[in-house]
Design brief:
The protein is an alpha/beta fold and 417 residues long. Helices cover 19% and strands 18% of the residues. Strands 4, 5, 6, 8, 11 and 12 form a six-stranded mixed sheet that branches. Strands 1, 2, 14 and 16 form a four-stranded antiparallel sheet that branches. Strands 3-10 form a two-stranded parallel ribbon. It is globular.
């Protein structure tokens, strides 16, 4: 059999890109793409679980009354939106595999994730909506640890589960085990760092989980417990959800473009699911349309519902749609996050001790998918066609909207005629 070998090169204006090297890991555990029973976000359920054993826990109604008052006070006092830079630390959990070998993600993979997070929170992910807004929040990889020692890998805390004496995670840690054992023994001061735990596999006991976050609490309601404290505040992510649109994890899996962190961080800064966790529910943002329930996959417009909505905003980060179409935070959602940053414990102090520049994605960058690179194609064509031919689909990853011409060059070699 003769083969035609294609080696791909990409020329983009003044920039040459052959490989990002950021997502070469292979998803070996708990493959998200093929998971039959996966809950994308467990934040609401985790809070409900907490409230069952904490009768004095703050209710949704109490928090919403407080934040609405604070939002109105900001408007009355004409408090302008601020720009916040928040230090983030990724606690990468593994069994001591070599750096860059799943699940011990490389620093390049983490950098791609924070680039995506910053794009999403700066309204730079190409939202089609007029109400889309810059949240005023950006993230920087922590430069020093709690002892003030400069980190060799900024923003990364590598944790060996075996050395820590934690249970094996191969069958999935319970979310309750993470909150009661993993977080308290690894968290960095949540007044100074936004903590993100990257866990290979975790579960609620019945379904696998992709991520969950702690929700902010009101700072003025005495006698109430919040659903987080100084030992649990932060976000938990499944390892396979870390990535970016340019360097997706697992060759562009459904949830491999880094948008899970954008969603969970939304909860951490006070946002609710866009459908309000009820049929035709309330997310307390007037500029988001009422959704009947969550979306999944890649819906198409228009998408009306029985709530009276002519078209749903399924591109909103607080929906459950596939990563590839999520691109929108609205102005009201930004107001909520700004208000939380001004008033909530373990939020209002986060921007006080920042060092280092904010990673910003480079525009005009394009590359073939890590899963393409080089392929071989049999000379045999498609049966029944003349002349015989083959269609070959190639995936291109683009960092952002192009501002220059792109040239894709195919270099054929081999023995085929």
């Amino acid at each position: 059999m003769k083969y035609l070998y294609l080696v791909f090169a990409v020329v983009f204006s003044f920039l040459f890109v052959f490989s990002t090297g950021a997502s070469a890991q292979t998803l070996q555990l708990n493959t998200i793409n093929n998971n039959r029973d996966l809950i994308r976000c467990y934040t609401v359920e985790n809070i409900a679980q907490y409230r069952k054993t904490h009768p004095n826990a703050e209710t949704d109604a109490q928090f919403e009354a407080w934040i609405n008052y604070k939002i109105q006070a900001r408007k009355t006092q004409r408090v302008a939106a601020a720009s916040y830079t928040i230090p983030i630390v990724f606690h990468i959990i593994s069994n001591g595999e070599a750096v860059g070998t799943y699940p011990n993600l490389s620093a390049a993979a983490i950098r791609q994730q924070i680039l995506q997070l910053n794009k999403d929170y700066a309204n730079q992910s190409n939202s089609p909506y007029a109400v889309a807004a810059n949240t005023g929040i950006q993230f920087v990889l922590a430069q020093k640890n709690e002892a003030g020692v400069i980190l060799v890998e900024p923003g990364i805390d590598r944790l060996n589960a075996t050395v820590k004496g934690w249970q094996p995670y191969t069958t999935g840690w319970l979310n309750t085990y993470i909150d009661a054992t993993v977080k308290p023994t690894s968290i960095w001061n949540p007044n100074n760092y936004f903590n993100v735990w990257v866990v290979p596999s975790f579960t609620n006991g019945q379904s696998d989980l992709l991520g969950y976050a702690t929700f902010p609490t009101a700072s003025t309601l005495t006698g109430l417990d919040g659903a987080e404290d100084a030992s649990t505040a932060g976000v938990v992510l499944q390892t396979g959800a870390v990535g970016s649109a340019f360097a997706p994890f697992n060759c562009g899996a459904t949830y491999g473009l880094g948008k899970t962190l954008s969603h969970e961080a939304g909860h951490f800064f006070g946002l609710r699911h866009i459908w309000g966790d009820a049929n035709c529910g309330n997310d307390y943002c007037d500029d988001t349309p009422i959704h009947f329930t969550s979306n999944s996959g890649v819906p198409s417009h228009p998408k009306p519902n029985s709530c009276g909505t002519a078209d749903e905003m399924f591109e909103n980060y607080m929906d459950y749609s596939d990563d590839i179409i999520l691109n929108t935070f609205t102005a009201n959602q930004a107001d909520r996050m700004q208000t939380v940053m001004l008033n909530s414990p373990r939020r209002k102090s986060l921007a006080n001790l920042v060092a280092g520049g904010v990673p910003v994605a480079t525009s005009n960058k394009i590359a073939f998918s890590n899963c393409t690179g080089s392929i071989s194609i049999s000379e045999t064509g498609t049966t029944g066609t003349y002349p015989r031919y083959k269609d070959v689909n190639l995936t291109l990853n683009v960092e952002d909207k192009a501002t220059g011409a792109a040239t894709v060059t195919l270099l054929p070699t081999g023995t085929a005629i």
